[in-house]
Amino acid sequence: MKHSNLTPMLQQYMDIKENTNDALVFYRLGDFYELFFEDAITASKVLDLVLTARSAGGNEKAPMCGVPHHAAANYIQKLVASGYKVAIVEQVENPKEVKGIVRREVVEIVTPGTYFEMDDNETREIAAIHSDLVYATVVSCNIVSGEVRAIRVMNDFVEIIKVLQQFQVKEIVLAEDFNQSIIAEISGKTDIYISYENDVDPTIKHSDNAIQNALGRLNQYLIYTHKRSLDHLSEVVVLNDLSYLRMDYATMTNLELIDHQKGKELSLYHFLNRTRTNMGSRALKQYLMQPLVNLEDIKIRHSQIDTLIDDYILNDRLVDLLKETYDVHRVVARLSTGKHNAQDLVRLKKTLAVLIDIKAELTTFDEFQFIAAIDGLQPVLETLSKTICDDAPVALKEGRTFQSGVDDELDELLVLSKNGKQWLIEYEAAQRERTGIKNLKVGYTRAFGYYIEISKGQIENVRDDFGYIRKQTLTAAERYISEELQNYEVKISQASDRILEIESRLFDQYSEFVNGYSKQIHHIGDAIANLDVLVALAEVSSLPGYTKPHFVDGKVLDIRNGKHPVLETTLKDHQYIASDAILDADDYTLILTGPNMGGKSTFMRMVALNAIMAQVGCYVPCESLTMSIVDQIFTRMGASDDILMGQSTFMVEMMEAQAALSKATAHSLILFDEIGRGTSTYDGMALAQAIIEYINNSIKARTIFSTHYHELVTLEEMYSGIRNVHVEVHEENDHVTFLYRVIDGRADKSYGINVARLAHLPQSIIDRAKQNLALLELSKDSVNIDAKVVQIEVEPQGYATIKHKLQSVDVNQLTPLEALMFVSDLKKALGDDSHE
User: Which CATH number covers residue 231?
Assistant: First the structure.
């Protein structure tokens, strides 16, 4: 339809829609949000709503559906979860003061990366990306926690997707001229929502131009969606440093740190999450994704956990107090975005009151000065305690938000309003006495207002001198009004409107006052969250069989009777069997052999998770753990193709192997599970041997390399630093029993046929396989590896990375500033290498 042929209301709707054409428009009409045309068709399908129609002008009809205003949050959540944006349109004028159609405007645009009304712990981040010819700079923001982080990666879609997945980004903001091929890869391989913003907030300044551009674009987009600046966001933290143990997205996935393919409850995060607050739950996730590498910081955490374990009365008291706190990060986010209500202020007030008790409990402990010394915002607590009622309603219209004494006029109006019921009772009694009609009733309906109701049998007793005016006829009664009742209704109505007006003013006033302390409130939230994580880690650390890790210098990772923390508690088929893992300056490469299902992958994860938990500051499930700091962890585990990147298993193996070979240092931990299995036997074994030799002789990182190529066990005799270990198996009469324990030495054979028997393959196949195996073993000598020591050319650490960077850049396209930054990054890579 032509715009001019639409009704005035739909003309207004279409004007708004044209300016927000990437969002579903929730257009406020009375107590409903209405959607029209294509938006209505889309929403009706996603939300399972009845699709109706409204007159659009002339004889045309507009498809329409709607949701109640009071229940809109659930519908918006479902739309956002399905990948849609929602533009909220509200009246911005008082209908009583306007002739014609009321002006409406978009007051907020809800997006997958900015919606935080769900009261859960899921991480929702929104990120902006700035790219040049060499690098992509990603600036990511969590609206709830207020954290803003920046990281620089190679301008390659695989690297970009990995960092977006690592940060659990739900939405990215790009300029419209961003690389279209990378956009296509992100769109096709992830469910990340892509939004566009060409403008950059000019008020954002940063020493790094790429970060300034990405952060400025992100901030401009947040202003566009929230229609205001977000004061609670922190300063951007640059993550391209060595301040934490580095793991890429593949490693976090392989180690099942945050998620697990078979259910989140099997992840390390879920196992450790004994936190009592949402803030603590989110903080724990960051602890796991960024373990410490500074030994002094780790010792401080150990000291904190020691105190909580030893002083169980203190620990129990803190648990009780933490349960009484609220998610003040979310409160500040709601305040900053204007979505708050009176109960948010109540939650803040109660949390500040609990903070006093928490500080009192910890004031004598030096290791907890991070919370004992924090500003408790006494002025905010005192102000809210004197003004806001604990049972304040979510909506202001009920008149129970502010305490008496805050505003004299409000107090007077509330007295009038509260005495109204008594006035009506007395008025009803007086009218019964006056008229002699004993069943006369005085009542109220929203549609009709106040009325006097008289049954049909008593109507003849109504006299003119009563002054009653008939207003409504019912089946069994008549309803009247009187001048006195009308005057009272006007008085009460004016009082209600004035109460709402005063409370709205006071609410805005105190909200602005509290919002002025948003940064300090955020710091309080951080402190409570960190305390909550420490209490949770102390609970885990006090479990039977957990011990305090001991850190030393050098290159050591010595685990005695170590267990996988999650499997130890969830394993149902058999008891978990502990194993030793000893890597040191003499034997830093373990070649792990044994059958499938024997526990090789579990053993490797056990080693990594114990190291991560130790550097998080937690106790670990083993008899003892002595280790030196691990700076990076690289893994390749799992046999499934990498569907996300559209690569085969073998290609992903080689890519992840390359990442380890080019970035690992002598202080890193490398876990490779069955490298080379994605190609032919000879190719795979040749590559596996070369990779082991290179890691062992050149990088000298602590490494566990599991393999089915049993010929590789001879490398132990060829090179110093390599030691064979295997998973223990008991065999009797062609039947095998997996003992799930890793011991020194090489595996005698693969037991593949025995595993096939356990899987109940037909006996005829088992017998034929035995015959084939006997024939193949006759030619076994032909696949023995070269038994002479080969001097491997040692490629300088970082050489492959620098070579890739140089090959990927067109020097003719670089600006002078970009060239200087590029040379600076190359020097940093070489500097890191020379440091090692």
Answer: 3.30.420.110
